[in-house]
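Possible race condition, two jobs.
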Amino acid sequence: MKDVIEGRVWVLGKDVDTDQIISGKYLTIIDPNELKKHVFEIALPEFAQQAQPGDILVADENLGCGSSREHAPQAMRAIGVGAVVAETFARIFYRNSINLGIPTIEARGVRALFEKGDIARIEMRAGRITNLRTGQSVSFPPIPHHLLELLEAGGLVEKVRAELERQKAAAGAA
């Protein structure tokens, strides 16, 4: 995870549920390359075709509400979303996103700062998000250290994999 993340912004409204991120009819898909073709089909129909790796999603309140399906952040990760920023998140969606290594930031007042196509600059450790077009910014509370560690490792699976490798190497050296 980079300390500073910059990317083109896509905006979402309030109460965007997981079915609007990836429709339930695609839950049998396990191939990330196939899954990403359908991300935001309902909420942002043009997203799957036009999104670029590193793009940033900025949303209003309650992003990721509804069912707790992990497919929603998996589809976002597959398409290369650089970060997700919202006024508030559904808790399970927030944690699923972090576990998959997607920087996920809750920042009050953020949605009002951005229009589609703006460039956002997120300073992870400083806790600031800036619209580079307008210069306006908002602060967000520091992300807890244990969640930053997950993001830096690339997600929960990667963190566990690295820890197992470290233990294996230590056992071999003994």
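Job #2 (started ~2 s after job #1):
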Amino acid sequence: MSETIVVPSERAGLELDEFLCLQFPGCSKGYLRRQVRDGAILLDGIQAHPSQKLRHNQVLIVDFEEKKLPEPPHAPADVIPLLYEDDDVAVVLKPAGLAVEPERWARDKACLAGALLALARRRGGDVRAGSRGTGGSIEERFRAVHRLDKDTSGCLLVAKNLDAERTLRGAFEKGTVEKRYLALVEGEYPLKDGEEDTIELPLGPDSRRSGRMIVDEPHGKAARTLIRIVERFRGYSLLACHPITGRTHQIRVHLSAHGFPLVVDSVYGRRDVFLLSEIKNRYKPKLGKPERPLMDRLTLHAESLAFSQPSSCERVQVRAPLPKDLENTLRQLRKVRSLR
């Protein structure tokens, strides 16, 4: 595939890689930067640097090998709701079961990146049917600035331009973005109402199991989580967790190491499903039908985010409603495991 593109006046001043991300939205930024470095994309006939700023009427010559183009991320069937949006940022309501980025071994499955690309295209992208990663340009590129585990629901912060992305990533590094998670855990957490507990345990990757994290006192990175009680049940607790640092699986590992694993967590806990029959005396299953689990994913929900708006610096707080599965589970616990 060979294409010639003239830089329009409204995109003058953009860095080359950012321009290319808008022009070829189905391709990742990393892929496009590699194409620039490999000479597959020329600027005014010569090789350029990915971060070079563009001028009006400069000419790009793009020569991709069509068969080597990456498959663009796939969008889920359902539209992902927006909880908040302004000119710089959006907060989306990520459902459980949807990965943020394409999964390494399942790139044909839907992901949030695909949903964000579909959103950008619905807002005026000139999409050419049948193209793979190259379909026509878009006006905005939405980019997630942090991650949630695939099976965690809730608030996820998205930047709509490069300046916002850089500002928000810096805010995460400085710890000025406040995150609150709701975690349903095993055990009755020993805190009084209004008290706060702090878990400080360094975390590092488990060398014996890829993708898993462990408490690593000598070599791990510092990790700190604040804990408060939200609701108590016999044998279970609903906790508000505020991660001060942002290590992979931090809340899950900290709670498990503290003796209060998530009710459903096949990696750091002891269940992959939570059944009503486990908590209800004299439970009677429906004749001839298998019991449907109350929860069959992580009992973790990113309930709220608070951040400074990148342009105005005004403080913004966004809350995500409880998902139906967690809401129903809490309702059942109140019925059969209430402490009142």
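The chain has three domains: 2-68, 82-162, 175-283+290-320.
Logs attached separately.
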